[in-house]
Each structure stands twice: as structure tokens, then as C-alpha cells.
Amino acid sequence: MSMHAIHAQGHHLDELLPVIELWLLDGGYQVTVIANRIDGVRLDQRIRIFITDYAAGSLLRVYADAAFLDALKRHLAEKRLLSYRFACPYCNAQVDLTAAKCPTCGAPVADAP
């Protein structure tokens, strides 16, 4: 299990923790929350997330594989708690997950990732 860092600018523990906890529960994880730490277990998969608040937002230290990290980023972006960008499938420009079309080529990309 490797560690990945996510910066949630303008959002803090009290916003992030319940959103992540419910998402994990809905995903079939057994969840334990202790202060600023979330542990999740599902089958053979174990994850751990530490949330540290700073004046400008929070740092999430996510101990999980890359697939879980990507799913977490997408979920937080859908909840408007994180900006998440992906490559446009048509022109390869960076597009925000919440955009309906690419700002560079104008192609519809809302359902692309």
C-alpha cells in the first residue's frame, strides 16, 4: 500500500470526513473513524486516510492503490470538494471533471472518463 497526497483547498476535516465515510460504507467497506483517520476494509483491500487541516484547506494522506485513489478523487470532485482534471479524449487538453465540454476543442467530454 503506497501513500498518495491530495490537497483539498478551501475544505476541511468536518466537510471531508463524513463524505468519505459514507462513500466507503456505500462501497461495501467496513469503516472505522478515529479523530482525523479513516480506516476501511473490504475483502482483501485495506485503505487508510489521514486528514490534516491547514488554514487554506486540508491535506489527505491516502494509503491505498492507484485505482482507489482515482475513485476517491472522482467522488470528491463530484461533491465539489476537489478539483479533478483528466485528459480530453479528443485533443488531450486538461479538462475539469465537472465540465460538459473541452475548453480547448469544444468536444463533449462529460461522460469521457
Describe this structure in words.
24% of the residues lie in helices and 38% in strands. The chain is α+β, with helices and mostly antiparallel strands and 113 residues long. The protein has 2 domains: 2-82, 2-Layer Sandwich (TATA-Binding Protein), CATH 3.30.310.80; 85-113. It is globular.
CATH topology of the largest domain: TATA-Binding Protein
Lateral strand order in the biggest sheet: 1-5-4-3-2
**CATH architecture designation of the largest domain:** 2-Layer Sandwich
Biggest beta sheet summary: 5 strands, antiparallel
The tally of beta strands, per DSSP, is 7
Q: What number of domains?
A: 2
Helix content: 10-25%
Average pLDDT confidence is: 87
The CATH homologous superfamily of the largest domain is named Kinase associated domain 1, KA1
Helix-strand string: EHEEEEHEE
Distance, first to last CA? 24 Å
Radius of gyration: 15 Å
Return the structural class: alpha+beta
Regions with little confidence, pLDDT below 50 for 5+ residues: none
Quick take:
The protein is an alpha+beta fold. It has helices spanning 13-26, 66-78, and strands spanning 2-9, 30-34, 37-42, 45-54, 57-64, 85-87, 94-96. The chain has 2 domains: 2-82, Kinase associated domain 1, KA1 (TATA-Binding Protein), CATH 3.30.310.80; 85-113.
